[in-house]
Each structure stands twice: as C-alpha cells, then as structure tokens.
Amino acid sequence: MTSPLADDLAALPELLQATRDYAVSVLAGLDERPVAPTPARVPAAPLPVAGVGTAGALAAFERRWAPGFSGSAGPRYLGFVTGGTTPAALAGDWLTSAFDQNVSNRSGSSAAALEDETVAWLGEMFGLTGHHGAFVSGATMSNLVGFAIGREWIGARRGVSVARQGLAALGEVTVLSGAAHSSVHKALSILGLGRDALRPVATLPDREAVDVAALESALAALDGPAIVVANAGTVNTVDFDDLRAILALRDRYPFWLHVDAAFGGFAALSPEHAHLVAGLAGADSVCIDLHKWLNVPYDAAVQFTRHRDLQVAVFQNSAAYLPAITGDPDFFHLTPENSRRLRALAAWFTLTAYGTDGHRAIVTGAIAAAHRLGERLTALPGVRLLAPVRLNVVCFHVPGDPAAVVRAIADSGEAFLTPTVYQGVPALRAAFSNWRTAPADADRVHDLLRDILTPRP
C-alpha cells in the first residue's frame, strides 16, 4: 500500500468519525443553508500525484467545493421534484457503500433477496398486483426499460424478436401520449425507436390529461399495435390520465400501456388522492422514481412490469462465468446494467423505519404545503395560478420577467424554483416533496415572492 492509504487504514475509525461529524454539521445547518445560489467559480487543481489522505481530501473538499453545493436536501428546494434524504435512508445509503455488495447476481450474498423484498413492498404500496420490478438509476432509465420491453412485445406480435433480429426487423413503431415527459423522448431516442415515433394526442381543455376519445381515434387509425404512454402526474400541473378509461380501450385496440408515475404514483398513499392512480395495476410497465417522494438519495428508481419473460429476452446476459437464467432471474438479466450498487438498501431502511404511515405523512404534508402556497399566492397582485393545485406542484404566472424572478429567488438563498412554460404562458413552478418541509416553509416562499414582486419606492 502507498503511505497515505496505509495511514488511512490504520486511522479508519477516526476518519469515519470526522466525516460523520462534518456531515452532521452540514445537516444541522441545512434549514438555513443558501438553497441554490450561483456558485463562485472554483479554479481547477492539478491531478494529485502523492495524495494527501482522507483527512486532507476532506479539508480540501470543505474549502474548495462544499461552499458552492446547494441545499437541495433541505425544505425549500422546490425547483425539481426532489425529496431530501430521511435519516433512515441516509443510514442505508452509507451502509450501501460500506458493504459494497455486487447485487447483479444472487450468488454469495443476501443483497439480491433484500432488493426483492423492497420491490415487493413498493409494489404492494402502489397496488401493483402481478408486477415484477428491479431498481434502476432514475425515471429516465425506468421509462427506457419499460419501452424496451414494450418494443419486444410489439415485435412478438409481428413475429420477430427485436432482441435477436434488431430494429430493422421490427419496422415502424408508433408511440402515443398526451403530455409526455422529456425523458420519454430521450428513452425513445436511445432505443432507436426515434423521437419522431412519439405522436402527441390532444389533451382535455385546460388540462395536461389526455383526451381519451382523441386517443381512441389515434389508435383506430393505426394498422397494428402501439405503445401508449400515460401520465400519473405531469411535471407542470400534476395532472393524471384516466387510467381505467385508457385500459378499457384495450378491449378493441392492441397496445402496450406504459404509465409514467415517477412521482405521481405516490398519490396512492393519500386517501384523498388515491383514486387518481386507480387502474395502475393494469399497466404493462410502470415507472416510479424513489429519489422524489420516497426521500431516498439520488440514483434510485424502480421499473415494474407484468411481462418478466419479455424483460429477460431483452436484457439477458450470458457468459461462462455468469449463473444461468433460472425461474428467479439475476438482476443483470433484467436491466441495462451488469454492475449495479445496492440501491434498494436506502429504500429498505426508510420503509422499515417509518412504514407506510410515516411515508403517507410525508406525502400528505407536502400536498398540504403546496395547497398553502397556492392559496396565499392568489392574494399577491399580478400573480395567478395557471392550474389548480392538484397534488404537490404550484404552477403560477408572475408579472414582469419570470427569469428575473427566478434569479432573485435563487440569489436570496431562501428558496429554489424553476421556470417553465404552460400553455404558452411563461411561469414558475414550486414542487413540494421533501420530508423536512413544513407549512412555515410555504409561508417563507410566499413572503419572499411578495418582497420580490412588490415595487420599491
């Protein structure tokens, strides 16, 4: 071993304690940490040669990079649907690195069985009876896996295997959706189906939910099977497609139903909103993103499907050194990755620690904070909601230059919101999903906007 590495091994308990103490100090100040100001430029450093050891690296990080890190784990980071990290999820994530399990296969470790258990818990929580699942890195990868399986399903109906014969044997595939997320376009591009395969379908008036009658007309005009992408929670207004009405169309038209429920699927935990995801179990594939409302660290989502045989056909990986496919496939037969960390452990910890009751409280608390902000914003001159606050996102128009308002919010250090455009109108959106967020945080965001938008004498 080199000297710094040997020294670090000898001092490992003290180094971990120092890192723990530093992390605790960061988290203790998270509520008042500047949320997302523009960071100062950090001059590039040369590649280290000898190295300075862990203590030196920690000091360098604290000095050079930490001051520019956002408070994205805190209660007023509302620009993206980003949960924080519950204490239990943080513990699980730290142990993920400490154990460093190879969870790609089931031999030599119980890690894969822990992932199976966690996926089963999540499936039960979302009512996904009959579905199998696996952890992936995020919603984009979850959507990609769902479309890849759907692509194979369409191939089977045409008498070809895309996994073996390639896209040339498949021919054109049509994808229909009312208000598809940008990651859908990206996934279609990666899979070779092409962004132009997506044909937008009309939405209901003043809504982002698909017009089911228009969807039926689009399906009737096709000669063969298609992929339908339904939304369980759109980005701008958290609108939901009528899943049961869409499922009813399968009696007359062949299509693969993929539901993008990245964060809207968590409506299942709210008694008042669970009806919005009625029919979710009937989908062929489902995307759920856990770094959002489950409040686990980034790099955690789940893909669900009712067609594991097709999933294995797409993602199987055979080699002399790998176990053969069995009735319970290894995870490298189910997702694009061979090497994969134990993403499930953070989710297992937070579900074990707080249960469905605890996570229901997180969901309903975020919904209440969003409604509180929406109600208070309507009293500000020139501010108007562009859609009802359906779940956890407030989409609203402000007078003047929205980009300038966004910059002023960020520069204040009080909060972080992002700009958007809804039905051609420039807008701002505030997305609530953090377990730390309280009603007082919604009030602070309101007060900040009031001060920014109030003309000064």
From TrEMBL:
Q: Which InterPro entries match?
A: Aromatic_deC, PyrdxlP-dep_de-COase, PyrdxlP-dep_Trfase, PyrdxlP-dep_Trfase_major, PyrdxlP-dep_Trfase_small, Pyridoxal-P_BS
What are its GO biological-process terms?
carboxylic acid metabolic process
The answer to keyword Lyase applying to this record is: yes
Q: Which residues carry this modification: N6-(pyridoxal phosphate)lysine?
A: 292
Q: Which domain of life is it from?
A: Bacteria
Required cofactor names: pyridoxal 5'-phosphate
Extract the GO molecular function terms from the UniProt entry. Answer: aromatic-L-amino-acid decarboxylase activity; pyridoxal phosphate binding
Which PROSITE patterns did the record assign?
DDC_GAD_HDC_YDC (PS00392)
Q: What are the boundaries of the signal sequence?
A: none
Q: Which UniProt keywords apply?
A: Decarboxylase, Lyase, Pyridoxal phosphate
Q: Which family does this protein fall into?
A: Belongs to the group II decarboxylase family.
Protein name, UniProt field: Glutamate/tyrosine decarboxylase-like PLP-dependent enzyme
- The species this protein belongs to is Actinoplanes xinjiangensis
